[in-house]
Amino acid sequence: MGHKKTKKMVYMALLSAIAIVLHMTETALQLPLPPGMKLGLANIISIVVVELYGVKEMFIVNFFRVVVSSLMTGIFMSYPFFISCGGVIMSSLVLAFIKKLTSLPIVSTSIIAAVFHNIGQVLVVAYIMSSQAIMSYVFILLASSIPTGIFVGMVAIEILKRVKKQIA
Fold it and tell me: Quick one: which of 87, 94, 108, 97 has its CA closest to 42?
């Protein structure tokens, strides 16, 4: 294995570990927010990875983040795991389309990803509950998508300013 491939693998492992820690930390925090509403700290790493390495690598990091953190918190294959998967899959797919088809700024991309993360989670809850009544809750979550998306995007930009110099 070449030096560049090894270096990339090490960075991907580090970014995955950071995403897992952020995901678990946010899960452990008891912020006074409405149910289901979170800051999306681990999504910072998703944005960083897609900008540094690309879509395939972002899917890999997101997969590891959800699976490993759910194994470590004991929720693997439970409702919260599937709800988390729904959000991550939906936001990752949208992020992939955005990166392939547009050149939107990072903050805009982050807001859109946050919106679809919430939509994905609510769709899974609606499926689990066998009721579309929960779909009205998506509007409450979407209101949080804008400020959290801006926050995540701005933090990702600051990280990228510092990391791009180191990785190149």
Answer: 87
